[in-house]
Design brief:
The chain is α/β, with parallel strands linked by helices. It folds into 2 domains: 172 residues, Medium-chain alcohol dehydrogenases, catalytic domain (Quinone Oxidoreductase, Chain A, domain 1); 139 residues, Medium-chain alcohol dehydrogenases, catalytic domain (Quinone Oxidoreductase, Chain A, domain 1). It has 11 helices and 17 strands. The strands form 4 sheets. Strands 3, 4, 5, 8, 9, 16 and 17 form a 7-stranded mixed beta sheet that branches. Strands 12-11-10-13-14-15 form a 6-stranded parallel beta sheet, sandwiched between helices. A two-stranded antiparallel sheet has the order 1-2. 50% of the residues are buried.
Length: 339
Amino acid sequence: MKAIVLRQNGDPSVLKLEDWPDPKPQPHEVLVKVGAVGVPYHDIVERNGTLRGGHGLPKIPGNEIAGTVAALGTAVTSLKVGARVCAKGFHSCGECRRCRIGKETLCGKRRVISGGYAEYAAIPAEALVEIPENLAFADACMLGSSTAVALGALRDVAKVKLGETVLVTGASGGVGLAAIEVAKAAGATVVATTRSEAKREALATAGADHVVIAGDGYDFSADVLALTGGEGVDIVTDTVGSRVFMPAFRSLATGGRYLVIGQLFREDVAINPARIIFKAATITGITSARRDQLADTVRLVAAGRLHSRVARILPLAEAAQAHALVEAGNVIGRIVLQP
């Protein structure tokens, strides 16, 4: 089969289209004919070497996968050949105590899904959810690592309520756009930050009540406090990480909840713990979405309650161009590759 193979870390030019052996599903895996694969910033930091743990080379990148089941492993009974599916971002064992009490995202054997930049991918059946005919592969591929993550973070972890205020950093990305929609669906007021004035209208169309333009190094907390009458926001949904952590934390109301969903850069962040104590803040890391959260997301998107936002569809051979576009930061929504 044809596949994009990452053999060394570097700029987008290291992504090469090669002939690669067809994967053979293990007993608990299925072989998926890839219909579409998303290109999130996760793939950028994996390619450039920022994300290192568990990412040995060479490998075929891509964990935002949707397609058709082409073959079943010998132990798979939950799916049939021909089923249309999309994947969550990670595979969990399904047998440990954490998995059995609904904490599969904390599974000690949790492993990232990969192999989507190819014509076929072998994926654990546990990580797949069926999708209906009215949901295109290009729209479905990103759900497990963006919309379902936002749904789980805001609905199930932060428990966003009617009338609350939510700040979304990096709001023009896949998780950011989804977070805007989920927060609005819950009845919250949304403040979105972005680096580009050109993205203001798109964020407002997505549902943001206020858009704050915050270039690199800009402390947007004064803007957020002004918009909230000095109170700050009830929830921060941070998809960027260290470079915006301090202004985002300053924007948090007393008793607020801070959701750390993304870390796009290598820098650490320093904070005096007393600031967390005096603000009575809760800071929670969000790793991924559970299978039930992905299933809920599929139903909501298929019903038109939530939406995927595809910025552009490119052929698999143009993976390097896709990475360059995402890394430039001028994309609203998700770039998708199709084999």
